[in-house]
Design brief:
65% of the residues lie in helices and 2% in strands. The longest helix has 17 residues. The chain contains 33 helices and three strands. The radius of gyration is 32 Å and the shape is elongated. It is mainly alpha-helical.
């Protein structure tokens, strides 16, 4: 396979110049920015200290040890790692750079990127020779910190010192570019590597590019690249990894047929799908509720000696529970346990959520208690599910008890916890408590999201606190807080229902003035306000405008305007609209049918009215 064939998928994009000669990327290690993000690290007067160890001065005049064995951190703790780092310099000779790099690498695995960069700077300042491996570690840290630009600066330092970066370094930089959505730059770097032929890309290189392509929405190009590298004789494991990523991407793009075809293609080419491949496709099938195919795929993978893991089972359990099929989910759970896969918090959370969706709170509580009895620690998702369930059942006291228990268990409330609880309080009519909780949320440092503001506006409107709702919305606009059409819908509906039609009309006009697109809810709220005031001509005209604008009325729209006509005993107009509603496949509300029946004493044996009632009753 030629280089041109592999790179052909990218040629429609403009290239950028990537030069690595000396002087292009000049960077001085002494200029490394010191980021004291960790309070446990103090770099002062060339001394590295921690809160749990004595300081140690790095002496550049000491000889370099050639001993390869570095001290190992005793636990996944930054303090332990720094103690080990300082201990390396207590002897009469500085440890080998190999030992230093190994320890720095272990700290990178712990995620302490800023700390590692600070220590590398200290090594340089103290005269410790910093080689290609150490610089590559720094590049990796910057890429993890979403500062790939600094990573390229360190690449320049590599060239300046006469080192040649290896393929791992370039893989890291490409991954960093993709992570920062710099698709064009990553693509051009990849093509440059192919064109210069100085560094041979590995399966990791291609895997990085394919993963970046599919995450940036370029799945088609990723597939072309995948097929281009099939003749490069990479190990099957690398190819299966690439296939699995693309199948996962296709499923997330709701291209389930293409994902199934790609699975079939990879097996025909002799590549054996692994548990990740099958799990991705099973997830996609679950999202489409294709339960028969899920079952068949599970049988197929077991037939190939690929056994479902905890994630596979959790996906199926969660999907079934979301469909209200809790009994079937419990059957899957039993199979999971029989196969030796231990249910985790994710499994129990899915079951709890399923019971809560069905309103079976006692069963949900049993699952919660069972999880605790098995030694598992419930997380905030566990509590959010139960709190939501109790709020929907209007058992607000139990919900609030669970809300307070979250802090006692050492967990932090998230925005979903607050939104659920505030909504539950408003639904129960406890507006004062809802306001207090919102204030508590702000005081605790939790920033409200758009959903929070919708809940507040809706709660205030439903409790007829219109002045407060309008004042809050004005404050939102003045503060440039993000708002959308749903906020307007809530306020238009709220003001219309209390008879403040003038305010509702102003809000309705403001929707267009601000460039927002009204939806069926917007029009329905306004039509409802007009109908409530008996302004049926205006309501009918707005209905026509709605259709002309390409916004189709829904079931609620028709029922609202029909009830407006029936309130004025204008049954002929109501029946015309009901016929149109039925033709569109919508049904009448029970209240609409009741209003029609109430007209019988005054309309006698009106055949048109009787016929309409007969059409509607079987549909209820």
């Amino acid at each position: 396979m030629s280089i041109g064939a592999i790179a052909s998928a990218f040629t429609k994009f403009p290239q950028f110049q990537f030069h690595h000669h000396q002087g292009t990327f000049l960077y001085n290690f002494a200029a490394l920015p010191h980021s004291p993000s960790s309070s446990r690290l103090c770099v002062c007067n060339n001394i590295v200290t921690t809160t749990s160890s004595s300081s140690s001065v790095v002496n550049p005049k000491r000889s370099i040890s050639t001993q390869p064995k570095p001290p190992k951190p005793t636990s996944n703790n930054l303090d332990d790692a720094l103690v080990s780092f300082n201990r390396m310099f207590k002897s009469t000779s500085i440890p080998s750079i190999y030992s230093i790099n190994k320890l720095l690498g272990s700290m990178v695995k712990l995620g302490h990127y800023n700390t590692v960069l600070s220590l590398i700077k200290q090594l340089h300042l103290q005269g410790v020779p910093v080689g290609a491996c150490t610089i590559s570690i720094g590049i990796n840290c910057y890429c993890h910190l979403n500062r790939v630009d600094f990573g390229f600066s360190l690449l320049g330092s590599l060239f300046k010192r006469g080192y040649e970066p290896d393929v791992v370094t370039f893989n890291t930089l490409m991954k960093g570019l993709f992570t920062e959505d710099k698709f064009s730059e990553a693509k051009n770097l990849f093509i440059k590597l192919l064109g210069e032929k100085q560094i041979k890309p590995t399966e990791v290189t291609y895997g990085t590019v394919i993963n970046g392509l599919r995450k940036s929405g370029n799945t088609k190009i990723a597939i072309e690249l995948l097929r281009s590298i099939e003749t490069l004789n990479f190990e099957d494991e690398g190819m299966v990894y690439c296939y699995s990523m693309i199948i996962d991407s296709l499923c997330k793009d709701r291209m389930i047929c293409e994902a199934k075809n790609l699975l079939l293609e990879m097996t025909k080419k002799g590549f054996s799908p692994n548990v990740v491949t099958y799990t991705s496709l099973i997830h996609g099938l679950c999202n489409f509720r294709q339960w028969k195919e899920v079952t068949e795929l599970l049988r197929e993978m077991v037939g190939r000696n690929v056994f479902p893991n905890a994630r596979t089972f959790n996906i199926v359990v969660d999907a079934l529970c979301k469909e209200g099929m809790v009994r079937e989910a419990k059957d899957v759970l039993e199979v999971m346990i029989k196969r030796g896969e231990v249910p985790n918090v994710v499994t129990y959370n899915a079951l709890m959520d399923g019971y809560c969706l069905r309103g079976q709170l006692e069963e949900a509580q049993k699952v919660f208690d069972s999880m605790v009895n098995r030694g598992l620690q419930p997380d905030i998702i566990s509590y959010n599910s139960l709190i939501n369930g109790y709020c929907k059942k209007r058992r607000i006291d139990v919900a609030m008890y669970l809300f307070r228990e979250v802090s006692c268990k050492g967990l932090n409330h998230n925005i979903i916890t607050y939104n659920t609880m505030v909504h539950g309080l408003f639904e129960k009519g406890k507006c004062g408590a809802a306001r207090e909780l919102f204030s508590e949320m702000l005081a605790g440092g939790q920033s409200p999201d758009l959903c929070t503001y919708r809940i507040l506006l809706d709660g205030l409107c439903k409790n007829r606190l219109l002045a407060e709702a309008l004042s809050m919305f004005q404050a939102m606009k003045n503060s440039e807080i993000c708002y959308d059409i749903d906020c307007y819908n809530i306020l238009i509906d709220g003001t219309s229902k209390v008879g403040s039609l003038e305010i509702a009309h102003e809000l309705f006009n403001e929707v267009f003035a601000r460039g927002l697109q009204p939806d069926a809810c917007t029009y329905t709220a306004m039509i409802g306000g007009l109908s409530q005031k008996g302004l049926m001509d205006e309501a009918k005209e707005l209905l026509m405008r709605m259709e002309e604008k390409g916004c189709l009325p829904d079931r609620i729209t028709y029922n609202v305007i029909v009830q407006g006509y029936l309130n004025r005993s204008e049954s002929d107009e109501a029946i015309v609209l009901l016929e149109k509603m039925l033709a569109m496949g919508f049904s009448a509300h029970a209240s609409t049918i009741s209003m029609l029946v109430d007209l019988l004493p005054t309309r006698g044996q009106d055949p048109t009215l009787l016929n309409m009632i007969q059409k509607l009753v079987p549909r209820t």
